[in-house]
Amino acid sequence: MSDISTWSETDASNTIPANSGMPEGMARSDVNNRVREHMGAIRRWYGDADWIDPISGYGDEFTVSRVNTTTFRVTDVSGSGTDASSKYPQGTWVKLVIGGVTRYGRITSTAYLAPATDVVLADIQDEAYSSAGTDGELPAGSVTLAATFVAKRIRAAAFSPTGATTGQSPPEIPTIDDLGTAAVKAEGHTADDSGINADRLDGLHASELTTASLTSRESVLKNGGFSTWSLGSSNWGANDLDGDDLFADCWYFTHEVGSGLGNIWSLQRTSVQGDIGSHEYAVLLTSTSSALGNKVGLVQTVPSESTRPLVGSGSASLSFQIKMSTGAATNSISAFILESNSATPADPINPITAWGAQDVAPTIGNGWTVAGQVDQADITDAWSEVKIENATIASDTVLVAVLIVTDQPTTVASDELYVTGVQLQAGDQATDYVYDIPKKDETFWESDVNLGAVASGSLPTNFAYTQAHTLKSKPRLIRAVFRCNSADLNYQAGDEIDLASTWRDDNSGGDDRFGWSFGADTSGQVFLVCRGLNEWRIPNKTTPSSWGTPDLTKWDIYIYAWA
Questions:
Q1: Are 381 and 525 members of one domain?
Q2: What phi and psi values does residue 162 have, to the nearest 5 degrees?
Q3: Domain range for residue 497?
Q4: pLDDT reported for residue 37
Q5: How many angstroms separate the CA atoms of 165 and 174, rounded?
Q6: Residue 451 belongs to a domain with what CATH number?
Q7: How confident is the model at residue 152 (pLDDT cuts 50, 70, 90)?
Q8: Cβ(236)–Cβ(494) below 8 Å
């Protein structure tokens, strides 16, 4: 009879009968005996599979002995001078059988002085994983086993003895407090409270698991990473922003309006891949003037059906990532969590009634009140996180909004401000940003550039265009638009017109008018076609009875597709 620990990892070497081996030419009557021995060995190993003897595979090359009450010695008696420290690394738990008594201990250090390796232990426990009857010492006697926990691959965080946490129940639950310096990563309870405190998991500290702490942490904001831009312009130039402009589907840009104000900012989506974690995009604000008028804000209002987690929790937490360009004069930001007990506040888009003095928080009104805020948080040219935590949300709240503003008198031309990872969560703490799932490129696709049809200021005869989309299935919805890039026929930059509402004349003197055809085929492409010449007509925005001929340099063509 033998155990698995005496078997060789080389199949052809398992021929020694004493180790349940099967040599060539063995008697047929011995085969069934060997099979029974194998079954017994596997079953014995199954009963204690968490522990593996790391030196058993070396035959008689090593011996193990007790040195003192906290140390055992592994000696290489083969003369090859092998240091056994790698087989008993620091932090590993060890199971020793000494004089027929089982003890467990945590390795704190090893020292090699040829031919012996001394292994020092701490937290010595008995078979019941208790130190009560051991005095923290190894008993005297011969060592017959020195096994490591799961072949050293899983260390102290995976196995720990029952701790001495007062009132812990049931006592078999190991506490992470006891790991001490053996804890890998940050599992241990650290002085700065950054680790896990097992005390907080027992009944004596149930009060620390508050209702707010257990609340779902899904953000109630949409598009907090600014990855989707199917509505609103993704590139606003200076003089294009008029105070309440939609961008990134559900965000609004607001600023002080007045003579000479509000026309000195450009706004666009920009890639930040590789710059901050796994974020793909950010919104980029760029100042184009050193004059006054640099008071600007980003706003999103949460619809009533999405505010229920916040109201139910009674608290909300906001967080976002922000940075400025190197050398920028803009160096602080303010943020607000706002609430309204009306489904129709005076202005559901813009909660600011007066901007006031520079470096002073704007006046909030229009049916809104402040639930939480942070004033003049410092920002630099390195990404940093701004948080508002545990803001009280009233039980009669209907709408909630987020407002991020800067109103620095020191802003100068070319200052850049980046914002991404905005999330508003129920509960008393802001957690790490959760990226939108599914990703934008799995559900929405936008032609990546202007199609080029109007770049030269004219549409070609019998226009036709195709482009491969990136969706994983054939689009269920296609939209083709003319997007205004500069004011024309009373349309403003960012305005979009469905192609279906426009027409082209064949310019032959008759009344022949031609529309557009657009869609998706089965080869992964979208297409856009139109017959006709250069006579393109659209209704005037403010006088729809009047059709006009647009300045084609002020318009772009885009296609959107949804899976």
A1: no
A2: -60, 135
A3: 441-562
A4: 87
A5: 9
A6: 2.60.40.10
A7: very low
A8: yes
